[in-house]
Amino acid sequence: MSDQHVVNRDKQKLFDQYFRSHQTRMLAVARAYAPEAADDLFQELALQLWRSLARFDGRCELNTWAYRVHLNTAMSWRRTAARRRKQFPATETLPAQVVDPASSESDVDERLRLLIASVGETDRAVLLMFLDRCSNQQIADVMGVSEGAIRVRLHRIGKRIEEGEV
Q: Dihedral angle at the C-alpha atoms of 149, 151, 157, 158, nearest 10 degrees?
């Protein structure tokens, strides 16, 4: 068996394990950054994770590293989508999305979705990881800042929520 075959098999195994246990997280990131195209972004997240696995060197946890891949991909997706909207503006207005009253999504879920959509990209990333029960240190590792900076950011987000700004 060639070395390349072993590497590919290991990469596939690592991807499968991560994907099975974290696809909900990936979907949450996709919905937060591209609610109108969450399925497309979800596929892009999976593709970029697969492509990037060869560069995973194990210096940090796979979860931390993969979160960074997901957030970078999602932020890039949003920037690209904004450019596309400027280049090709819609010629007609689409009707507002109708919420199904029989939907299983609760009011709290909708308010969370609106909150996440109302904050900037960096705060959105921090908030998603916080809601995913990541520790402040894990969030700091993903974001490339100190744990203290994350505590301050979370405190400020909380203040803005209390004051009704978001």
A: -160
Judge whether 15 and 4 are in contact, CB under 8 Å.
Answer: no
CA distance 109 to 131: 12
83 three-class SS: helix
Which residue has 């490339």 as its token pair?
144
pLDDT at 116: 86
Q: Distance between CA atoms of 125 and 29, rounded to whole angstroms?
A: 8
Kindly report, residue by residue over 75-109, the tens digit of the pLDDT.
Answer: 999 888 777 666 655 544 434 444 444 444 567 77
| Most distant CA atoms of the chain, gap in Å | 62
- The b/e string for 100-127 (b: 16+ C-beta within 10 A; e otherwise) is eeeeeeeeeeeeeeebbeebeeebbbbb
pLDDT by residue (tens digit) across 26-73? 999 999 999 889 999 999 999 999 999 988 888 889 999 999 999 999
- Measured from the Cβ of residue 139, the count of other Cβ atoms closer than 10 Å reads 25
CB atoms within 10 A of CB 141: 20
In this structure, the number of other CB atoms found within 10 A of the CB of residue 90 comes to 7
